[in-house]
From TrEMBL:
InterPro entries: Flavin_Rdtase-like_dom, Split_barrel_FMN-bd. It comes from Leisingera methylohalidivorans DSM 14336. Gene3D superfamilies: Electron Transport, Fmn-binding Protein, Chain A. Pfam families: Flavin_Reduct. GO terms for molecular function: FMN binding; oxidoreductase activity, acting on the CH-NH group of donors, NAD or NADP as acceptor. This is Flavin reductase. Coiled coil: none annotated. Residues 18-173 form the Flavin reductase like domain.
Length: 201
């Protein structure tokens, strides 16, 4: 099968997200200029640099009460900071609950039954229950073609790791089993690892 996106795929559901998988989930916490905490998952997310450490996430839709974008991007534009929270398998239902399009003055931490803790390097809340969290300062927002496509880049200014997931000096993902986004309504979870040695190691 071959198709041009502008012509349509002719399938019951768009296969694009099922092709680019698995994708890590950036559970982005932010705070509005009025002090309202916000929390939302984004599956267009990744780390993009080591030195200094940097991450990105993309927002691809808008809300009626946030013209042209979503709460996360609007909040980050206003405050210049955000936090990336790691989603474990145990937090899958809370993550899903936080994905709803709540009014901008409602707090998703409370809606999802999560504990909000203050970050250390930025004025923003983080998810206390998350295995890890990355405190970030905005570096740039890039507007992409399309109605509401924006990519947010941030530099990591603080890193939280829960001690129970540190094993022999490594952050052991098998102990908390991070969630990954697949296509359609599907998710996966990381439970099995295997090593590969690079030819030049």
């Amino acid at each position: 099968m071959f198709y041009r996106p502008e012509d349509g795929h002719g399938l019951p559901h768009n296969p694009f997200n099922a092709i680019v998988t698995p994708r890590p989930i950036g559970w982005i916490s932010s705070r509005s200029g009025d002090g309202v905490n916000n929390l939302a998952p984004y599956s267009f997310f990744n780390a993009v640099a080591y030195t200094p450490p940097q991450v990105m996430f993309a927002s691809t839709s808008a809300k009626p009460d946030q013209p042209g974008t979503k709460d996360s991007v609007a909040n980050i534009e206003a405050t210049g900071v955000f936090c990336v929270n790691v989603v474990s398998y145990a937090l899958r239902d809370a993550m899903n609950a936080s994905s709803g399009a709540l009014p901008k003055d409602e707090d998703e931490f409370a809606h999802a039954g999560l504990t909000a803790l203050e970050c250390k390097t930025i004025a923003c809340a983080r998810v206390a229950e998350a295995p890890a969290a990355l405190e970030c300062r905005l570096t740039q927002i890039v507007t992409l073609p399309g109605e509401a496509n924006k990519v947010v880049f941030g530099e990591v200014t603080g890193v939280h790791l829960r001690d129970e997931y540190l094993k022999d000096g490594t952050f052991d993902v098998t102990t908390f089993q991070p969630l990954a986004r697949l296509g359609y309504r599907d998710y996966s979870v990381v439970r099995d690892l295997f090593p590969l040695t690079r030819p030049d190691d």
